[in-house]
Amino acid sequence: MAAELVRGQNHPLSQVHLEIRVAAGKPVVAAATLGDEHGRIHGVEWVAHPGTPTLPGLEVSKQAAADHRLAVDLGAMPEAVHRVSVLLALPLGGDGPVRFGAVAAPFVAVTGLDGTEVASYTITGLDAESAVVALELYRRQGAWKVRAVGQGYAGGLAELLTDQGLPQASHLAGSINEAVAQGLARSVAAPPPRTPDGDRTRQTATPALGPEGSGSTTQGAPGAVAPQPTSPYGAQGTPGAVAPQSGYPGGGAPADPSVATPPVAPAQPAAPAAGGPVDYSHPRRQTGAPPQPAPTAPPAAPGQPARPVAGDATGWSMEERLYNQVWGMFEDLARTMAAYRSAVDFADSRMEKELDQALSDPRSRIGGQGDAVREAAQVKHAQLVDQARAALDRDIAQLAAESEVVEPALPPAFAGWDNPVWHGYRVPMEIPMALRLGDLHLPESPELRIPMLVRLPLERGLWIDSGNAESLDGSFTDSHELRRLALDTAVAHAARLLAVYPTGEFAVHVIDPAGSAAQALVPLVHTGVLAAPPAMGAAGVADVLTRLTQRVDLVQMAIRGGAADSLPPGLDTAEQLLIVNDFPHGFDDRAVTQLRYLADEGPSVGVHLMMVADREDAAGYGPLLDPLWRSLMRLTPLPDDHLADPWVGHAWTYEPPLVPPGSQVLRQVLTEVATARTKRR
Predict the structure, then answer these.
(1) Which of 383, 535, 615, 633 is the most exposed place for a label (fewest CB within 10 A)?
(2) What's the rounded Cα separation, in Å, for the pair 678 and 681?
């Protein structure tokens, strides 16, 4: 089973012939360094880069591209080499981004020659860095392992290579950038794609993600059709050429993993005709040929937009295609709504300006001249708003039609509790790439709901707000009812996490100091899926927090010391979730400190926090708990427009994924999880 690594985590490698696949969404430079037992580089001849792409047992791409395939033969590595570091850097010059914070998180996967994924890593948390050590393959006691690193450098390749002990770092960084520039100059554009009339093509425009990404720019990772270098795999290997371009964050591969395809530059997308269908333009949609053949939409009637089809985004699997499609729908709705609001704001400001200019002259206020000017300005305003609304309605209708076919096709991890897919639920064998935490919508289109998907494993804990809040219709919910809804939401989230993880790879602990959550926790307690009965009282709180903080300490020390395989035999290495109810009841200062420690350090080593609490109840601690509040993702048990979107500035309305009233689906799913655990023992 493939391992999805987090920063600092390692995984054993059972094969010596490997490929390292990179998907960045934007052109990046891929390189690799060879290090000794201390990780030091002995000279420029220990660095594989576009100017020198081949070393013993290693081969990298000759140019910058959005996707790469690096060939590695661990059996051919010299005896002095104990570490192979994979580097990614943004090319200098040109119009591309200059920091990783302005692009989608790069994805790196280690695969076998047959394309079977061994381990993967999504490099998150980058901002001003322009170069990063993505991962490293290292030799320990004669065996090779892979470790997720994610160490970024704002100073680029020169700073990165200097940190690895290379004296000629600045000179080599300049040589690499020069080789990349020469590769771009030799690039040849691909012919424009041929599509049937009326078919909806997924373009490759990238949304604004920061100062470098402002505006709408077409993704271009020009790649020359270069001669294939000699593969270090020998006769039984595959050429280590660059993979075809693909703009989605989860990585890309051709349909046949054993065949490498030289890259070509994508053609500039043509501007859509006026009044045509919505332009689905974002980096996670289809870019060139998909890694696997995506479903084809049935032909549309002449003059009509193409019929939507589930799974028509790019991805290695149907799950990844659906994930990318859902995020594409989210981005499309955000973009079209931003365009509508901008058009309305322009119409308002234009009308105000025309009225101010007309009425600033006292003569225009006499007789009916002022009324005529006011009426003309209002007519222009109405025309502009009507045009914007017509475009919005057209785009929303297209997205609604897509949602109608996508929602029934979602796997359990992405589906709502009312989806029939849960009735055929079986405990999965692999961890899914994402989890549904609820639905999102905007006030102008409340009927169109987009699943809120977050990647797994969770990078942030959750705060389920049980405090008094005003609902969207202006009514207030009773405090006791709100706490019950908050607990139901927490149980629904915990049940979903238990359901999507393989047997024995996820454990749930509950702290309920006063026992007030007994009724809401019945599904978890009666099915026997909790790691232990809910902890009650100050002693129970201290016991659970002590055990989990010790687990975090042990795993962190093992990872930092490079001895992750030497943890104590009794340590539960499964992902852990701690649900805390009625905070801060039953918590002293030591327990609060431990809780903050778990929130800060736990996610990186598989310990996650879910708070069910009212922030006002913890006001007595003053600013001590502000970092805890800010570090968690705040969710509400009632629809609330509190989720801010920094990309376009929208405030999205979030709705929790509650189980339909009277449904037994949650209990049935938890029973299946408990049964699978019993069989495993």
Answers:
(1) 383
(2) 5
